[in-house]
Amino acid sequence: MILAILLIALICALGLNAIVSYIFRLSGRSSQSFPVVLPGAAARQRAIRKVPVEFFSPCLKLAGSDSECAICLAEIEPGDRIRLLPVCRHGFHVRCIDQWLLTRPTCPRCRQCPFVRSPKSSGCVKPEEVDRTGIEPLGPEELEVG
What we know:
RING-type domain-containing protein; 146 residues; mainly alpha; 4 helices; elongated; zinc-finger; transferase; single chain; Herpes Virus-1; 3 strands
């Protein structure tokens, strides 16, 4: 008897999940269409817009030797519109880096803060301050929620 009740509850839950998924699909909403935007998105958007857009050419000096966009992994071709981040001088496709910086506060290549000169005020850490030799996972009591 209990097994039958659990089976009916499972079938009802699966049916409800299918109905909700169908409704979202009909309305054009999906989890991929809503990127997570961090607090301060308006200020971050203004900062992103201030970074000039350039057209890539082979003579343009990018930090590092790669001419590959680290976000979409496509080759940056001559004539592509790119943004060079002001602090580290890494270059990325405009559409890629704009979306990246809206959801993450660091450069995708070197993890430096691209706009703020004082890393402590933005919560970023300079690469030389990171101890890469002894990385240990955080225990549950050390996690910060907020």
